[in-house]
Amino acid sequence: MTTPTTAAVPEAHGPQARTAPKARAPRRTLAPLAFLAPFLIPFVLFTIVPVGYAFWQSLHATERVGGTFGRTETVFAGFRQYGDVMSEPFFTDSLLRVLLFALVQIPVMLALALALALLLDSAVSRLKRFFRLVYFVPYGIPGVVAALMWAFLYDPRLSPIVDLLGSVSVDVDLLGPGAILFSIGNVVTWTYTGYNMLIMYAALQAVPADLSEAARVDGAGAWTIALRIKVPIIRPAMVLTGVFSLIGTFQLFTEPQVFRAISTSVTSTYTPNLAAYSLAAADRYSEAAALSVLLAVATFVLSFLFLRLTARGQK
Fold first, then answer.
1. In sequence order, which residues have a C-beta less than 8 Å from that of residue 296 and are 6 or more positions away?
2. Is 279 exposed, middle or buried (0-12, 13-18, 19+ CB in 10 A)?
3. pLDDT tens, residue by residue, 142-161
4. What is the CA angle 244-248-253, rounded to 5?
5. Which residues lie below 8 Å from residue 304, measured CB to CB, with a gap of 6+?
6. Which of 17, 213, 230, 253 is the most buried (most CB within 10 A)?
């Protein structure tokens, strides 16, 4: 008795042959997240979470239940806190004051930073490392210390600046209501000009030297090379410093808080950031949170508009 044998199936050859499925390559979606983690984790913990908590707190209010001696209870209030804050007289005043500060101080500071950066980058500049350090030193001084130092220089009883102006018959009160905003702007300009200069100077180092040499051969002077070649190339760095300065202006707090102790011209609601701090100090946490959220939204909107305007001007 013979058993049937299974015929061997010939292997397929040619283009119609079925190939064995290849092993799928491992997914690499985790690799970008690993590189982004050093930024994403602090950003979520120290930016997204605090802003989210402030928004949640701005939607709630603390009310007393059970009469004068009853207990306090946190209740959902919706956007009532936003309406209360926006109806306060200090809201519009402080916001307009900060906008005026930005319109005057930011262009002056960035123009000085650009001039210093171009001066350090020029071919005739000497002792570049020394002056680069000198220009940057004010940024390394704590803001409170810098404000106290300038407060001494502004005090009419102690100020050598006031004495010098008085010797030429110029009577000015640098801590008065008409000059205090510009006095604060001078402190901010003195502190952050070197920081912005360093960003622009770093961008200037990336400008190819061949462009300047070619322009010089064609007869272009130093001013022409600086304004027609270097400045357009470092435009992205200038936009970056503009955004940083705009954000910092809406966060103005240290200098007004220090000057508040020596000048009656600075009130507890002089800037939006100082007003939010004063509301929180008065146990009005929900209104302080609402003002902080409004300030964050205003900063984002103005920064976005600034970027759109500068991008449109570049086209």
1. 51
2. buried
3. 989 999 999 888 988 888 88
4. 170
5. none
6. 230
At position 91, the amino acid (one-letter code) is F
Measured distance CA(252)–CA(196) in Å, rounded: 17
DSSP label at 48? I
Q: What is the pLDDT of residues 197-212, one digit of tens each?
A: 999 999 999 888 888 8
**3-state DSSP assignment of residue 185:** helix
Q: Write 217-226 long-range contacts (CB < 8 A, 24+).
A: 222/122, 222/123, 222/124, 226/118, 226/122
Residue 116: count of CB within 10 angstroms of its CB: 20
Q: Which residues pair with 76 in a beta bridge?
A: 60
Burial of 32 (0-12, 13-18, 19+ CB in 10 A): exposed
State phi, psi for 208 to the nearest 5 degrees: -60, 135
What was the pLDDT predicted at 127?
A: 79
Beta carbons within 10 angstroms of residue 205's beta carbon:
10
- Binning pLDDT at 50, 70 and 90, where does residue 173 land? confident
Segment 51-84, tens digit of pLDDT: 899 999 999 888 766 656 657 778 888 899 999 9
- Closest of 264, 282, 106, 255 to residue 273, by C-alpha: 255
pLDDT for the residue numbered 201: 93
Using DSSP bridges, classify how beta strands 71-76 and 60-65 pair: parallel, antiparallel or unpaired: antiparallel
Mean pLDDT of the region 260-273: 92
Query: Do 183 and 162 contact (CB within 8 A), yes or no?
Result: no
Whole-number pLDDT of residue 31: 80
Sign of the dihedral defined by the CA atoms of residues 82, 87, 89, 93, in that order: positive
For residue 176, which phi and psi values (nearest 5 degrees)?
Answer: -80, 170
Mean pLDDT for 283-305 is 92
Q: 282: which 2 tokens?
A: 């008065």
Per-residue pLDDT reduced to its tens digit, 7-17: 444 454 555 54
Q: What are phi and psi of 76, to 5 degrees?
A: -75, 125
